[in-house]
Amino acid sequence: MACKKADEDADCLIVNSALQRIATTDGCVAPTHPSVVVISEDIDFFVILIDIFTFGNVYFLKPGNGKIAEKIFSPHTALEKTIANSILFIQAMSG
């Protein structure tokens, strides 16, 4: 476990730290970390994953709340590239 301090918005730092857990220096998937799940109630993390995902074994888990069941998303399979680009644009414009 490691601790990192974010000087500004921590969303990108959190997602990049998760992706570093499975990436080796040559960009391949490390066998000791076969998959990574980013868990958050903030959908911004999933939007960031859509933009920067490089592996098919990265997932986003939105926890359930009351009667709402938890949901798991894969940025690799969830969206076509054109839809992903539209989501990134909408997110950028809406903040």
Describe this structure in words.
This protein has 95 residues and is α+β, with helices and mostly antiparallel strands. It has a domain at 32-94. Helix content is 39%, strand content 13%. The chain has a three-stranded mixed sheet with strand order 1-2-3. Strand 2 and strand 3 form a beta hairpin. The longest helix has 14 residues, at 81-94.
Lateral arrangement of strands in the main beta sheet: 1-2-3
The helix content, as a percent range, equals: 25-40%
Listing every helix as H and every strand as E from the N terminus to the C terminus, the arrangement reads: HEHEEHH
What amount of the residues lies in strands? 5-15%
What is the residue-mean pLDDT, rounded to a whole number? 72
Largest sheet: 3 strands, mixed
Radius of gyration: 14 Å
Q: In angstroms, what separates the terminal alpha carbons? A: 31 Å
Top keywords for this entry?
95 residues, alpha+beta, three-stranded mixed sheet, 4 helices, 3 strands, 13% strand, globular
